[in-house]
TrEMBL record:
The keyword rRNA processing does not apply. Keywords: Nitrate assimilation, Oxidoreductase. GO terms for molecular function: 2 iron, 2 sulfur cluster binding; nitrite reductase [NAD(P)H] activity. This is Nitrite reductase (NAD(P)H) small subunit. GO terms for biological process: nitrate assimilation. Coiled coil: none annotated. InterPro entries: Rieske-like_NirD, Rieske_2Fe-2S_sf. The lineage of its organism: Bacteria, Bacillati, Bacillota, Bacilli, Bacillales. Pfam families: Rieske_2 (PF13806). Gene3D superfamilies: Rieske [2Fe-2S] iron-sulphur domain (2.102.10.10).
Length: 127
């Protein structure tokens, strides 16, 4: 018997993108459970996450934090455009980036997460 020389060719298995997303994404409910202009809190891996639907149908997810220790959580804020804000405490958070706009705030950015919809189910991707 002879020795086989050379290397075996690696097989490439086709990757289904939706399977990769599911591996990192967590289901949080049905798409119709999230109403326009109202934040809703969900819990994933011991994290409170606020999910927001804008008037144009966009869906966003941010950590559900308090910008001011005595203030309200993000899900209790008012959604306007792609911003959630508290008029009594004068903070605004960009729903797309998590950037905080407020004078003398110790928080300048809130972690933001990607949101995916597959077959009317809402998934949040935690990195």
């Amino acid at each position: 018997m002879g020795v086989i020389k050379g290397r075996m060719k690696e097989q490439q298995v086709p990757v289904n993108v939706s399977e990769v997303i599911k591996a990192r994404a967590y289901p949080v409910g049905d798409e119709r459970d999230f109403y326009s202009l109202i934040g809703r809190m969900v819990t994933l891996q011991d994290r409170e996450i606020g999910v927001f639907r804008t008037s144009d149908g966009g869906l966003f997810a941010l950590d559900n934090v308090r910008i001011n220790p005595e203030g309200i959580r993000l899900t209790e804020g008012i959604v306007s455009g792609h911003t959630v804000y508290d008029p009594s405490d004068d903070w605004k958070v960009d729903l797309e980036t998590g950037d905080v706009t407020r004078e003398a705030s110790n928080i300048t950015k809130v972690p933001a997460y990607r949101v995916h919809i597959m077959k009317s189910k809402l998934y949040i991707v935690l990195a």
